Amino acid sequence: MSKLNIVEHPNDILRKQCKSIKGLAPSKKIKQMLDLMYESNGMGLAAPQVGWNARVFVMNITRDRSQELVFINPTIVSASKEKIEMPEGCLSFPGMVGLVERPMWVKILAQDLSGQHFYFDDEEWGSRCAQHEIDHLNGILLIDRTQKLYKGEDPL
Ligand code: CO
């Protein structure tokens, strides 16, 4: 079992603006976030969702562990004008989904565990998921982006 737990809505921790990581990120904690994400069948997990105020999220839109990604201090550097509405879930709103309109793709600049900068872009779920997780780092939640939540399974 992982030592971290998912923070569910409502909780003030989920509403805070997260602080940038200075220097090397704690890799052990980030590894625990990845483990918790897999245990919870999520595609992404942001630091405030484990009670950590930091600009960090992990993501894997496949079930293949070689595809997992760690984003430290991510920023969206460009986004498509074209938007698309898709259902999204969130581990902090278990069993709920909502329709959310977002840019179809984004390009993100972030740092990896070794502090190296990298660019990420993806036209489908990767962009969708990354935008959702970056929202978490700014205290923005699924309920702020959708008219209503309904019961369903589509975890992000
Ligand atoms: Co979420």
- Radius of gyration over C-alpha positions, nearest whole angstrom: 14 Å
Q: List each distinct ligand once.
A: cobalt (II) ion
- Biggest sheet: strand arrangement: 1-2-3-6-7
Give the N-terminus to C-terminus distance in angstroms: 21 Å
Structural class call reads alpha+beta
Short description:
The protein has 156 residues and is α+β, with helices and mostly antiparallel strands. Helices cover 19% and strands 31% of the residues.
Account of the protein in words:
The chain is of the alpha+beta class. 19% of the residues lie in helices and 31% in strands. It contains 3 helices and 8 strands, in the order αβββββββααβ. The strands form 2 sheets. Strands 1-2-3-6-7 form a 5-stranded antiparallel sheet, sandwiched between helices. The longest helix is centred in the N-terminal third of the chain and has 13 residues. It is globular. It starts with 26 loop residues before the first helix and ends in a 5-residue tail after the last strand. The model has no long low-confidence stretch (mean pLDDT 95). The structure holds cobalt (II) ion (CO).
